[in-house]
Design a protein that fits this description.
The chain has eleven helices and seven strands. α6 packs parallel to α9. The relative contact order is 0.17. The mean pLDDT is about 90.
């Protein structure tokens, strides 16, 4: 069985420590591979391929879908995207905090991109599994953005419901799409929140995960994948 992990920096394994972006060796696809290796039998072998790219959004996933997923002919593709779609051009917000600003990929385009990916994946006889957005820490994220672009963005953030508001809206629309299309999914966001205090899971920039966070994410995904990939005769 071949599984491709398709997404952005959370798939790639990016974290933020002491003011610097770092790549975590034990990202969720790497840890997922370890889980499957430990539990493999002579009849089953699972190959996990990491196709996560830093700063990607849903439109960029559409553009590299053929090269990174369809041509690889996997059995399953895990799709985790949205954090960069709902982000903003903060330099423009800082210059004009009194104006309205659109997310980098507005919600209608984001949903259409996900639909496009799902349709092409299914046409290639690949089974898509959507991942919801992990929670963020809005306080740390705001502090991180303000340290780079200045505190003038505070006026704009307070007028539009805040960063968490937009992040939650995209996740809600994604869950609605999952229900509408009846697509298999793994609810990372809810599973993280059920663990209780998530501060240790989120890195200094408020949006990427720590090494501990990636371990928790891989555990959540593995447990759900075992059920989702089980042959129908065994379910």
């Amino acid at each position: 069985m071949k599984i491709i992990c398709f997404g952005d920096s959370l798939t790639r394994g990016v974290t933020f420590m002491k003011g610097r972006v770092r790549i975590v060796k034990d990202n969720y696809p790497a840890l997922l591979q370890k889980f499957f290796n430990v539990n493999k039998t002579e009849e089953t072998e699972t190959i996990i391929i990491n196709k996560g790219v830093y700063n990607d959004n849903s439109q960029l996933l559409v553009e590299r879908l053929n090269k990174d997923v369809l041509s690889e002919k996997p059995n399953y593709v895990l799709i985790g995207i949205g954090g960069n779609d709902c982000n903003f051009k903060w330099d423009e917000v800082a210059k004009h905090p009194e104006l309205s600003h659109e997310p980098i990929v507005p919600i209608p385009e984001y949903i259409n991109n996900i639909k496009n990916i799902i349709a092409q994946v299914k046409e290639s006889n690949i089974k898509p599994i959507l991942l919801t957005l992990p929670p963020l820490d809005p306080v740390r994220y705001y502090q991180f953005i303000a340290s780079k672009y200045g505190h003038t963005i505070g006026h704009w953030v307070s007028s539009c419901g805040g960063i968490e508001h937009w992040h939650g809206l995209y996740n809600l629309q994604l869950k609605n799409l999952i229900n509408q299309l009846n697509i298999p999914s793994i609810d990372i966001r809810s599973s993280f929140k059920k663990t209780g205090e998530i501060t240790d899971y989120i890195s200094d920039d408020g949006i990427h995960l720590t090494a501990i966070g990636y371990k928790e994410m891989s555990k959540i995904i593995y447990e759900e994948l075992v059920l989702l990939t089980k042959p129908a005769t065994q379910q």
